[in-house]
Design a protein that fits this description.
Elements lengths: L13 H11 L8 H13 L4 E5 L2 H11 L7 E5 L5 H8 L3 E5 L10 H7 L4 E7 L8 H10 L3 E5 L7 E2 L2 E2 L6 E5 L12 E5 L2 H11 L11 H6 L1 H5 L13 H12 L1 H19 L5 E2 L8 E2 L5 E5 L12 H11 L21 H5 L3 H7 L2 E4 L7 H18 L2
Parallel strand pairs: 2-3, 2-4, 4-5, 5-8
Antiparallel strand pairs: 1-9, 6-7, 6-11, 8-9, 10-12, 12-13
Helix pairs in contact: 1-10, 2-10, 3-4, 3-7, 11-15, 12-15
Length: 395
């Protein structure tokens, strides 16, 4: 079985290669000028005072929860229709995730259900901008303020998305970005925490670097007198969540191209929308939503064909996916609900989950090949193959 059209593909140009090569010609491969330049650029792009780059979006979520004091005995409201790292990070700080259902159109947390889920143990709302569609941030901010909760944005799929003309990631107490190779921009592996508060930024920098004292603290003069000694002093338990100079250089150039990249992805989404509109038994993602500008991370359709089961054959999507792969077209399941994952099945949070919309939608979603430079010819092949495969799988 040979895959001719991949699900995703990074877009690396000579400019990125030159920037990474230039770092290799220096003696500084970690915690150097490229990291600082990348952090400044990410912060400026989001109109936020500071950004702390880390080794992954998952690391960013972990550190955001730690820095905001979320911990044992507290609850964090999260979607189950999301990548598993959202709940894993909550568990890593010994807090309890509370799974809340989603809006059936945006696939983001439903604010009304968020409010219903708040208990005296609630400490935080962790909102995911699913597939690059901004969540309803004004209502979520108001709920968080009224209940004295911290608000964390998982914008790992949403760089460049906007809600009421503000960038996703600029609303919460902290926000996290992700730069995995399938994201809109990539650092290979990497992430970033957007932060307004200088003390929080210092804490995040310390935590990502094994709990070492941040260079930006008042002890900077002492570090200059004896930097080697300070390197082996750790003020708290930390982690090795650093982002390398190589990755930062790659990310800096990718961010320079972000407007071009987002435009290419938007055009690809619009082409799919036109090509797929005549196929029955498909529900297409919303191309335009009030007050929102979507940053296209993936292009996910929902299969609506009815099969032997009722009301929808849960295996239909899986049969379609297998046959597409045999014909050389890669697809993805976005997302298998977290509470139904083997690692989470049977845990108290999963048992307590009442998320019927999540469960119904998740069994029907299919991510089609989607990346910056996907061609019209490739998209036409995907659509023709999908149409043929769906017809065959319904027989």
């Amino acid at each position: 079985m040979t895959i001719r059209i991949p699900l995703s593909a990074p877009d690396i140009t000579d400019a990125e290669i030159d920037a990474v090569t230039a770092v290799l010609r220096t003696s500084r491969l970690s915690l150097g000028p490229e990291l600082e330049a990348f952090e400044r650029a990410v912060a400026a792009y989001h109109s936020i005072p500071d950004a702390v780059a880390v080794s992954s979006g998952t690391a960013g979520l972990h550190l955001a929860l730690l820095a905001l004091g979320v911990g044992e005995g507290q609850e964090v409201i999260v979607p189950s229709f999301a990548f598993v790292a959202v709940a894993n990070a909550v568990l890593q700080v010994r807090a309890t995730p509370v799974f809340v259902d989603i809006d059936p159109v945006t696939l983001n947390l439903d604010p009304a259900l968020v409010e219903e889920a708040i208990t005296p143990r609630a400490r935080a709302i962790l909102v995911v901008h699913t597939f690059g569609v901004p969540a309803e941030m004004d209502r979520l901010q108001e709920i968080a303020r009224r209940h004295n909760l911290v608000l964390i944005e998982d914008a790992c799929e949403a760089i460049g998305a906007e809600y009421d003309s503000r960038k996703a990631g600029s609303f919460g107490d902290l926000a996290v970005l992700g730069f995995y190779p399938n994201k809109q921009i990539t650092t290979g592996e990497g992430g970033c925490v957007l932060v307004r508060n200088g003390e929080l930024a210092d804490r995040l920098r310390s935590l990502r670097n094994q709990g070492r004292l941040s260079k930006r603290k008042d002890a900077a003069q002492e570090m200059e007198r004896d930097p080697a000694a300070r390197w082996f002093e750790h003020e708290e338990i930390g982690y090795n969540y650093r982002l390398s100079e190589l990755a930062a250089a790659l990310g800096r150039v990718q961010l320079d191209r972000v407007d071009e990249i987002l435009a290419m992805r938007r055009a690809a989404a619009e082409r799919y929308q036109s090509l797929l509109e005549t196929i029955s038994d498909l529900e297409l993602p919303p191309i335009a939503l009030p007050r929102r500008s979507v940053s296209w991370f993936v292009y996910v359709v929902r299969l609506t064909a009815r099969g032997p089961g009722s009301p929808i054959d849960s295996g239909f999507r899986d049969r379609v996916q297998v046959q597409l792969a045999r014909r050389g077209v890669a697809t993805g399941r976005y997302f298998a609900p977290i509470h139904q994952q083997p690692a989470w099945y049977g845990r108290p949070s999963s048992v307590a989950a009442k998320v019927p919309i999540t469960e119904t939608i998740a069994q029907r979603t299919l991510a089609l090949p989607f990346f910056n430079r996907i061609t019209l010819a490739q998209q036409e092949e995907v659509v023709a193959t999908l149409s043929l495969t769906m017809q065959e799988c319904k027989r």
